[in-house]
Design a protein that fits this description.
Blueprint (H helix, E strand, L loop, with lengths): L6 H14 L3 E2 L1 H8 L2 H9 L5 E2 L10 E3 H6 L15
Antiparallel strand pairs: 1-3, 2-3
Helix pairs in contact: 2-3
């Protein structure tokens, strides 16, 4: 995998944010991206992520702005080395 640096990286990030600004993620996907449900709720309360829940039902689907969720992503998963077959 090639690492993109400098101005090219900024252009790519801007393109991703523009494309995803019209998309939404559900609560589970959003919370896994930002680092947990508590973190997601605090970002929503601070106004950093726009969200809505169109129905008042308990199990109604959340709609979180995908571009804003991606801007607050966390990479906390440790990558495990692949096991070699003998």
């Amino acid at each position: 995998m090639e690492v993109v640096r400098g101005e090219t990286a900024e252009i790519l990030l801007d393109n991703i944010v523009r494309v995803m600004s019209n998309e939404t993620f559900g609560k589970d996907m959003s919370s896994s991206i930002v680092g947990g449900e508590r973190k997601l709720i605090s970002l929503i309360e601070e106004g950093k992520i726009e969200s809505d829940k169109p129905t008042d039902a308990q199990n109604g689907k959340w709609h979180c702005n995908a571009a804003q969720v991606l801007l607050h992503c966390r990479c906390e998963r440790k990558i495990k080395p692949k096991k070699r077959k003998k």
